[in-house]
Amino acid sequence: MRINSLSIEDVLDILGSSPQGLTEEEARRRLSEFGYNEIEEVRREPLIKKFLEQFTHFLAILLWIAGLLCFIYEYLYPGEGMLNLGIAIIAVIFINGFFTFIQEYRAERVLRLMKGLLPFRARVLRNGILRDIDAREIVIGDIVLIGEGDRIPADMRLIEAESLRVSHATLTGESALLIKSPEPWEGELLTSPNILFAGTSVMSGHGRAVVFATGMRTEFGRIAHLTGTVTPGISPLQREIKRITRIVGVIATLMGILFFLTGFIAKRTFLENFLFAIGIIVANVPEGLLPTVTLSLAMGSQRMAKRKALIKTLTSVETLGSVNIICTDKTGTLTINSMEVKEIIDFNGGKSLIYPSLSDIAFLCNNTEIINGELRGEPTDIALYKWAATKSNIPRTGRIKEIPFDSERKRMSTINKLHDRIFLLTKGAPESLFSICSHILVKGESKRFTPEESKRIMDIYNSMMDRGLRVLAFGFREINEEELREADIEKDLVLAGLLGLHDPPRPEVPEAILKCREAGIKVIMITGDSTRTALSIARQIGLVKGNPMVVEGKEFHSLTDRQLREILKQEEVIFSRMTPKYKLRIVNLLKEEGHRVAVTGDGVNDAPALRRADIGIAMGSGTDVAKEAADMILLDDNFATIVNAIEEGRAIFENIRNFITYIFASNIPEIVPYIAYVLLKIPLPLTIMQILAVDLGTDLFPALALGAEKPSGNLMQRPPRSPEERLLNWRVLSRAYLFLGPVEAVAGLYGYFYVLKSGGWQWGETLSPHNILYLQATTACLAGIIITQIANVFACRSSTESVFRLGVFSNRLLIGAIAIEIVIALFIIYTGTGNTFFGTAPLEPSIWLILLPFSVMLFIAEELRKRASFL
Hints:
Number of strands: 25
Low-confidence stretches: none
Structural class: alpha/beta
Mean pLDDT: 83
Distance between the termini: 70 Å
Strand order of the largest sheet: 8-25-24-23-9-20-22-21
Number of helices: 33
Shape: elongated
Strand content: 15-25%
């Protein structure tokens, strides 16, 4: 038998305790046997290990080797500028590593927050003496005293209670206060009025309870363990970035080795080939990619925050764009969460009689309270209170007892003394009340509840639900004092009437649902409401068009995973009369089928599903644990905000792909000079420091500006990306390496040779690295890359749409970024510091004019390519 169904004497006997508590010796023995009362973190990789991992992946190792080789070269041949290069490469490694580690660290905070919800101190009886102890030292069998403002330290069974009210908000997200009493209870443990759960709070009254579960054995601990063991999984963007860095790293290494060997064939010295190999590696590796992606995601999260979506993990910004299923709550997300009584079915015809009226029951069987002039309680209770308060003239006193709402019974009862008579007053789901009603109140008389009458009322009830109303039934019966002690007191009720409450859909939701349909995103409603009410709301918002597959909570348990998978494949699916604990199973099955899932939730018991989903979405009004477990928080609890965020996420994926094209395009003009250096036996046209000047200097801000492009008009008319679709695909590579890059390479080499020839250089002539002509020639090569990259950034705003259609000046951030790029270029070329650090020299203005046509040519060629729709 469950502990909530036992008498107090039996509970104390089973737990080996007494009203005076445990002895100190027994408490110490149990503490040694069962351990401390605390939430344990699942064993994870130490943070220091995760930190070090950011510096040991393939790309990082490649850069470490390149940096080390630079330091060796500087040691053997000091003064060649390799020290600066080595420092720059190491700085890139640390910047990338810190950005990634910050995201890993934030994920560890969920369980720490859950641990913080348990109290530090507790008052217990030991040998009949009241002691104040560390809450960690509480053991099973301890008698704990609780009062207003206390946080419950463990799962406990009440043995005494005086006006005790507890908030389960930290556990379930529900704000209603629950009245607690020590009497045995036959229902579910989670809804038992005699059970107190760790982490919940005492709002009023006081009592005593005996501990039956501590630490990880509590309901709170079970959720914490499940949350800790649920693996969120790697995001699509993280997977793609890892893939890109591996591909680029392998290509860079192979090219470095290949051209190192080619240098010997061309009879270059070992040191020349060594320098060449490093240059090839640095030129191929997009050092600015990871910082640019991270900063772009940060900018995207800021834009989402303005649209009431707070993004907690940066990769979630892009992950949103790949979502193809949303599992959403109904109340407060699809609806405005503002209940109002809309329809009244009073079987008594409003007669003033000796029996309690419909409004009396709604007024008295209600836990709404007025605190600081505001109504506090569940939305349903508040709506009933507002309606009944002006119609009932009975004072809210005389309550003897409450039988709280139970998810199995689906009803709540209070026992009240009215005019020296005792009445049981009950409200709840009509199907629950009809089963315990034997009579119906008609014009002041209690008449038999006949099958004909039952059918008539069921028709009324169904009609109300079909109109989207949440329907509650109300009943009563007069009892005597002896019946107060009966366990099964809810029977033979007189049905008084029905009330239909309306929680209207949010006005912006139908359009958001339509957007989801057009975007190929399936929306699954998971609600605690009845099937008919859920269906009505679903039809009002356009969520269902035909006859959807509906699964009620009572059926859910009996479904096998195979059956549930088949149900989830249906085009339109609704889950009604559900509880949050079912969400995790649904999310797991959807993910196993290869879907990318977003799920909403607000309670602690939603945390495992929020963690497991690709995107966990917490309500702004929900619990702190749900918010911490989630990837995104809806500041307005609005479904439409999710759809807006998905649109932003899709735009960010496109923007990342565009600036990858932009960044990779500059690889070709960085690589070609090294190939020319070996094959043509010319002075090196571009130094490694000048490559870094492009990758981490002039390219960085324009690439960021590309990440700020607005979503294109047809973005939400496309289906979600396939899991097989790559961020770096053949189309991106061919456009960058075979089309844009070669134009830039020609511009750079033309500038280089133009300066050399103008300065009198002859083919085969060697030049010192400090020769002014050589410095000016490499600077001209650098200038050629920079000036064509300015045209390229406009070209890369979209892979298909013309710049003129987008609006040349529509991205103001891009104009500012180009201005910064020009300032950086002027600093590198025309200041002493820039000349010293990057090995450059000032250029004549005429050189820029000679290079400008290449920029114009690239821009025109790209516009023609888009019109012809090739590559």
